[in-house]
Design a protein that fits this description.
This protein has 271 residues and is α+β, with helices and mostly antiparallel strands. Helices cover 42% and strands 19% of the residues. The protein has a domain of 119 residues.
Length: 271
Amino acid sequence: MRYPKGTIIVSRTRDVPLLEHVLHCGFATREQLFEFLQLDRLERSRPAFEQRVQRLEKHDLIRRQSGLLHGHEWVYSITPKGACLLTEMGELYAGRGVQEQGDGQMIVNHWLEINEIHLALRRNNLLVRWTPESEIRSQNDLTTFGYAKDYDAIVTVKCGDSDCRFALEYERSVKTRSKYEDICRDLDGEFHVSTLLYLSPTYHVLSFMKRCFAPQKLVVCFAVAAEFVEQLLGTAVIVAGQHDCPVPFKEVLMRTTAGKRSAASAPKQLT
């Protein structure tokens, strides 16, 4: 069969997984995308991968721009055409994504760092499920049971014999104190997750943030991103309202998960 010149036949088994990773990552380098596909056991050949990226870019399904991190690599993001193709195939995407945040270097770097956190969990076989921001935004925009905010990810990890779930936020630069007060009010209505992990690039950012959060129903933890990438669930975190007494993140997760299960199984009182 002959196809019109300039068209592309999209492979569901090879092209679509790559497009999905580009969408879920927001922005990603070639190295990051190749590693994701390797971890998925979908790609082993680097030349084949490079050819696929070039082909998808040529047909305007992904686009590239220069990046300042990771050795000045090219950075890729989804195009409207690529996003439309994925939604037609059933992707949970409401059309409001990272492109609305702008494509400035700070936004790009934000998502490149999130990818490194994601990859670190996968490399160490700790990840059960990673719900990307694009899916979270879709749930928040299109359903009546959304999250309290557009988290960077919802992460489910292996904790001993249990699976533990937490919301993840990477705070590259601080917001105003009044903005964090607004966020605290929103978080007080969160019922999907019991734990929120805020990662920051420096102790200075972390120090300011932890003073803005009071103890609340949602357990809010703070840690430096580089330490989390290295130590993962063993990372010492500061819990909001606990006076700088660091505890392993795994302990916090297991405690909040056990508490949520206990509350869910408790008999309801008749009124």
